[in-house]
Amino acid sequence: MTDRFISVDWGTSNLRVRLASRPDGRILGQIATDEGAAPLAAEHPAAQRAEAFRRTLLRAMEQLSSSCNAEIDALPVVISGMASSTLGWRELEYARLPFALDGRNLVCQALPSLSPSAGSSPVLLLSGVRSGNDVMRGEETEALGLWQHLDRRDDGPAVWIFPGTHSKHLSVERGSLIDCRTYMTGELFDVLRANSVLRHAMQSAANGESFEVIDFGDDFQAGLEEARTAVLTNALFHVRSRAVLSGTSGPANAAFLSGLLIGAEIATIERNRTSVARVVLCATEKMALPYRQALDYFGLAASSLVVPAEAVATLSVRGQCVALDRHVAKLE
Q: Is 173 a member of any domain?
């Protein structure tokens, strides 16, 4: 097996294709497009979807080959994310919890070679993980990569946080994922800012951008404080009453809202802190700031580990290395 491969992270909205090395998961080159699973599914009926995904990936690989000035046709391809969902290339069943972080019970399937020029170049499609009432696709691959990154001598019960549009909290113990919970933190912020009555109180907030660019100062802290004790559906309306009664600015109200939502998410860990030895935060540089502030406010900072942003950027690729090594027989 070659020491390089093509790493494909197929999100709902975006597609990332990378040339990566094995076994360290180092990224040698990458491109990103807006050809995510959702727009492809919307444009192509189910019967044509597999071919649409194949063509889209081939185009992206051609761009990657050109940008890296490298021949990549014959390299193995590993695909994670939404390509294995109902919106994707081929639907695969979810793996079940508990999910071993050495990748042994990962659900995956070999796909046909992408093109005649690729010859017998193997293609491995990875599936997600489900609990009794929650699902994820993509984060399980990042979890495999994170397990490679961490010092595993500290193997007590932990919660791994992956912030985002749908923030994921993964409960980990003795080398396995034992539970996963999804918090619609990012999506709720965007929906409330753009489409609810609260939008009038945030009209100038961040020029319509997402909460990643908000000033996480006193107003964000005020949101955290309300999240600790208030009922969320009541506290949300305070975004409006702050503007009406106190003339609070749009950006300040947006910061307050983000504090409410992130605080409501982190408060769930505080309530169960006796059963959690460590919190591991896996976030981009911008998203790490508000989550670190929330962890500190809820008294969890001392037991928290923040994964450096440069390491977070490679977790998916490192997890795909694990999948490639563990399931190489499926490609032969």
A: no
